[in-house]
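pasting for ref
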Amino acid sequence: MEKGKEELENIIMENQIHYFDENIFFTIIPELKDCEGFDHKHPHHCYDVWEHTKVAMRKSKPDLQIRLALLLHDIGKPHSYQEDGEIRHFHGHPQVSADMSRKILVRLGYNEKEVEEICYLIENHDNIINIDNVNKDNIELTKKLLYIQYCDAYAHDPKNIEKRIKKLDGIKEKLQEKINELQKNEEIR
C-alpha cells in the first residue's frame, strides 16, 4: 500500500490536474469506482459524482490535505442517497464519506493525525463554518475547510455557483475578522 500512497500523492500533487487516469485512482482506491457515472439527479449538480470530484480537485491549489479531502469528499454519495421522485438527496453523505475515507487512509498508511484532519475536512465540507468556534489552534484547518468549500462550490451547476460563492465570501470575511481579533489578542498578552 505504501507504493499506492506514494503514487496517489504524486498524481494529486501535480500543479495542474488536467488529466486523470481513472484506472490508477480506481486501482489504489477501488471505492472511487462507484462514483464514476453515478448521476447526482439533483438540480444543483451538472456532473456525475466522479466528474464533480475531478472538477473540484482541478480548482484546488496543490496542498496534499486539501486534495485528498476533495478526492474523497463525496465518495459516500453512492451509498447514502435518498430518492424523491426524480431528485436524489444525499443527507448524511459527509459522515458516510468520512467513515469510508478513514478506512481508506489507514489502509494507505496515513498516520492518525493526518487521517483525523482529512476526515474532519470531509465530514464538514457541507457545514456552514461557525466563526465562534474558530480559535488559534484550528485556524489553519478552518481556512482549509473554507477553501475546500470554494472548490466544491465551483464544481456545482454554473446556475448555482454565484449564490454559493457570495455566501462563502461572507464567511471568509468573518473568518478574517476573527483571525485579526485572535492575532490582536495574542499581541496584547
